[in-house]
Each structure stands twice: as structure tokens, then as C-alpha cells.
Write a structure and sequence with these properties.
Number of strands: 5
Shape: globular
CATH class: Alpha Beta
CATH superfamily: Gcn5-related N-acetyltransferase (GNAT)
CATH topology: Aminopeptidase
Radius of gyration: 15 Å
Distance between the termini: 45 Å
Number of domains: 1
């Protein structure tokens, strides 16, 4: 059976109860899932094999006061047994198509500058625009 890749909507919430453990960083919280799927600026492409979610690519639409809308890819994950089968590429392409339909003029990601990330994003013909990655955070 082929893996299906599509943008998840509220009606697809049940799919998040059958997620391969490699897809997200932790278990899906039903309350947080409902909030995510209800938000107009948050979107997620999912890859489903039979009844199991085996991949996802989540994104945020940024509305700016001085430039057109853009799409930021927040996370991309494909479960180990399904990697290197083009599923990550399909997830990103699904997000790109969806972003275009929503009026976004560009799409971007911040990735660790390692060989795997370089190879993946370059295979999609994306342009690297930075040299380093530094992440700063603060618990609230």
C-alpha cells in the first residue's frame, strides 16, 4: 500500500492516535492537538501508511507588517523504517503547494548545518542563506 501525504485538518484528528514513535518528540496531547488544528496560521502535512502516521512536516504562516506572508517549516520528521523513500520530500512539497494556495511568497527552514540536512535541502534545490545556526531560548 502506498503512503498518503496530505495536509491534516480537524476531521483528521483521529490519525494522531496512531503515530509511529519516531515522528514527534513525544506523545501527542489531545488538547494541544485540538488547539493546533484549530489555529488558522498553523498547518501540518502528514504521511500515513495504512492507519499509522509515519511522517509529518509542521509549519507556521508568518504575517508581517512590512512584507508578504511566508511559511516557516517548524519540524520535519519521518519514522526510521520509512526514511530514504521520498516521504520527507513529499511532505515538504505538500507544504509548499499549500503555502502557495494560501498566498505565501516564500518558505524557509532553520536546520542544523550537517551533511544530512545540507544534502536534503539541496536536493530540493533550496538555497542556503546562512552560515551558522545559533538557537537561544528562555523558559517562561
Amino acid at each position: 500500500m502506498a503512503v498518503s501525504v496530505f495536509i491534516a485538518r480537524k476531521i483528521d484528528a483521529g490519525l494522531f492516535s496512531q503515530v509511529h514513535e519516531d515522528v514527534f518528540d513525544g506523545p501527542v496531547d489531545p488538547y494541544l492537538l485540538d488547539r493546533f488544528l484549530a489555529a488558522d496560521h498553523l498547518h501540518i502535512a502528514v504521511a500515513v501508511d495504512r492507519d499509522q502516521m509515519v511522517g509529518m512536516c509542521s509549519g507556521v504562516i508568518y504575517h508581517h507588517p512590512d512584507k508578504p506572508d511566508s511559511w516557516w517549516i517548524n519540524e520535519l520528521g519521518v519514522a526510521g523504517p520509512w526514511q530514504r523513500q521520498g516521504i520527507g520530500t513529499r511532505l515538504v512539497m505538500t507544504c509548499m503547494d499549500h503555502a502557495r494556495r494560501l498566498g505565501c511568497t516564500d518558505i524557509w527552514v532553520v536546520a542544523d548545518p550537517d551533511d544530512t540536512a545540507e544534502a536534503f535541502w539541496q536536493s530540493l534545490r533550496w538555497t542556503r542563506t546562512g552560515d551558522r545556526l545559533a538557537m537561544f531560548s528562555c523558559a517562561l
